[in-house]
Write a structure and sequence with these properties.
The protein has 299 residues and is α/β, with parallel strands linked by helices. The chain has ten helices and eight strands. Helix 2 packs across helix 3. Bound molecules: S-adenosylmethionine (SAM). The site of S-adenosylmethionine has 20 residues, from helix 3.
């Protein structure tokens, strides 16, 4: 079942704020944007020519994939014109406009007709947003050429900014906020592996990338994220926790002192559309390995 992420983000609302959040997320915990395409590159026999970025958002994935796979055309699919405008602008600024094309499509209404014969479908933090992920997975399988790859990437944990002992008067504020979001249905998504196999794809690997970052983008991300928390949580956590969040957000020096680091983690599940009707005959998947990335905010 898809999780209800509308508390924090949705393509139906908050586009402006979501654009900012996605940009800050990519700038801080975006190590996966380098690591996962590199990992996929090690697992393809031929360089992908057509890549679909499903629920492309601001295009961080489209740009990363275009850079890693230098001859590929990218179709950035999203239901939000605001997001796709952003993708087009980013692609233009980076000299990638001829290779990254936007496709306006609400996947809840069906798969975009023109998007077929893909070598790679990339779905990052988007599968949990659609109404019927199993149908979208089947459509993705049909849109892949035989042997083509599907990569589904989700956050393992919500981004965290505050020390566990914050605030001194009632330690554990951020954990209580995350627990409340989980109860509301906004949660780091679990494992899509079973759904992917049910859609007729064979699993070939899994990779987790953790990231930790400090710097100006981290502070801006903390401000944007904690502001959303403070708006989303009244009635779901103790009023003293909302007060503590609002007090922190009203004191820039204190926010700077406390929210120095952001931590995040994502896992990619990689699968292949079988070339023949008996996937059991294929060779065993290669072992996946975990990567930890620590660093400063990056562009
Ligand atoms: C959380 S964002 C992730 C964006 C990007 N893939 C990333 O990892 O940063 C989810 C994106 O999926 C898009 N989306 C949500 N539901 C959709 C649907 N039914 N059809 C197409 N796009 C959808 C939203 O507009 C948003 O841009």
């Amino acid at each position: 079942m898809p999780h209800d992420h509308s508390v924090i983000n949705s393509h139906h609302a908050h586009s402006e704020g979501l654009v900012e959040m996605l940009e800050l997320d990519a700038a801080t915990t975006g190590a996966y944007l380098d690591e996962i395409p590199a990992w996929i590159a090690d697992r393809v026999e031929c360089a992908p020519e057509l890549i679909v970025d499903l629920g492309a958002g601001t295009g961080a994935g489209s740009i990363a994939l275009a850079r890693r796979f230098a001859t590929a055309s990218i179709r950035a699919v999203d239901a939000s014109t605001a997001m796709l405008d952003h993708v087009a602008q980013r692609a233009e600024e980076r000299g990638l406009a001829s290779r990254i094309r936007t496709v306006l499509c609400d996947l809840d209404d069906g798969w975009p007709d023109a998007v077929t014969g893909a070598d790679l479908v990339w779905a990052s933090s988007s599968l949990h947003e659609v109404a019927d992920p199993d149908r979208v997975l089947r459509d993705a399988r049909d849109a892949l050429r035989p042997g083509g790859l599907l990569a589904v990437i989700e956050m393992d944990v919500l981004p965290s900014f505050l020390p566990h002992d914050y605030p001194a008067s009632a330690p554990g504020l951020e954990q209580r906020a995350h627990d409340a979001l989980a109860r509301l249905g906004w949660n780091a998504h679990g494992d899509w592996a079973h759904n992917i196999e049910n859609a007729g794809l064979e699993l070939i690997g899994r990779k987790t990338v953790t990231a930790e970052s400090r710097g100006p983008a981290t502070l801006a991300y903390a401000r944007a994220w904690l502001t959303r928390l403070a708006a989303a949580l009244p009635g779901h956590v103790d009023a003293r926790d909302i007060d503590a969040l609002e007090t922190l957000l009203s004191d820039d020096a204190e926010l700077r002192r406390v929210a120095t680091t952001v931590r995040g983690s994502r896992t990619a599940v990689l699968a292949r559309r079988p070339e023949d009707p008996s996937p059991q005959t294929r060779s065993a998947p290669r072992a996946a390995h975990d990567v930890t990335h620590e660093g400063e905010d990056h562009d």
